[in-house]
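Milestone 3.1: sequence recovery, worked example.
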């Protein structure tokens, strides 16, 4: 897997932005599956740990939260955030496809990870193996083609096309969302359920996600020969102007939420 988005400080800033604008729907999902004090939780592909730390806040000192991510810089930032916020969460360098645990978790969660993986089915199977039989595997991921904006914006349309193209070029599936329920059933999850959310913004920082994401995939897009940097810069500039307009509306991708219990 080649991650098409930036890491480092810029990548961390984007993840913080995304965590803020996405948290209300993730919070509702975790409430629905019964997140409570004392649970043991694993956040797979945790990035800088924003969801992991919210999990730690909810499960309290009697619970346990472990976050894993392949990016060492993100893990370092997650550990620092845990210290600065006084939250007990453990962060480890690791990958979903080589996931190993010594004891099963009550909740194993992944958000916006599987769309980047060449073999998401294997990752789901490993997540199920890490979950207690009475626990939950919980997944959120995207159908990137499901974006919309109003009024029409050619730069937004180009962004949606380029993101899908570069993720596919790197072995992922940017439109994995509709497949998630089937993948979970194939992995043997029982009582599998799904929901669909699409955060949409007429004001506020949620309108910035498209421009920030376009900027961060720029190098990968150019390296793949899908566009020039001059075009990337123009798309970013146009997206920023569109987001700043008083009457414009921008959405995140359609986000599929799927959860179930392992057999």
């Amino acid at each position: 897997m080649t991650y098409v988005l930036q890491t480092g400080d810029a990548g961390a800033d984007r993840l913080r932005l995304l965590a803020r604008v996405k948290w209300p729907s993730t919070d509702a999902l975790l409430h629905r599956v019964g997140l409570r004090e004392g649970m043991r939780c694993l956040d797979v592909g945790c990035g800088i740990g924003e969801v992991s730390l919210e999990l730690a806040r909810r499960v309290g000192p009697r619970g346990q939260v472990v976050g894993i991510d392949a990016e060492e810089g993100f893990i370092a930032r997650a550990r620092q955030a845990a210290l600065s916020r006084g939250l007990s969460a453990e962060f480890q360098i690791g990958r979903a496809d080589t996931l190993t645990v010594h004891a099963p978790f009550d909740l194993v969660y992944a958000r916006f990870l599987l769309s980047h993986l060449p073999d998401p089915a294997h990752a789901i199977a490993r997540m199920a193996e890490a979950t207690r039989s009475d626990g939950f595997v919980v997944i959120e991921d995207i159908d990137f083609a499901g974006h919309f904006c109003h009024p029409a914006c050619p730069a937004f349309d180009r962004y949606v096309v380029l993101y899908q193209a570069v993720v596919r070029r790197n072995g992922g599936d940017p439109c994995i969302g509709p497949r998630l329920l089937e993948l979970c059933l194939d992995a043997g999850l029982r009582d599998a359920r799904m929901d669909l959310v699409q955060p949409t913004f007429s004001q506020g920082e949620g309108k910035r996600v498209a421009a920030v994401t376009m900027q961060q995939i720029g190098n990968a897009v150019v390296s793949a020969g899908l566009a020039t940097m001059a075009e990337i810069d123009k798309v970013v500039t146009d997206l920023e102007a569109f987001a700043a307009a008083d009457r414009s509306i921008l959405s995140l991708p359609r986000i599929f939420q799927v959860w179930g219990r392992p057999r």
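The beta strands are 40-44, 64-69, 90-93, 105-111, 131-143, 149-150, 190-197, 200-201, 249-251, 254-261. Residues 199 and 252 are 6 Å apart (CA to CA).
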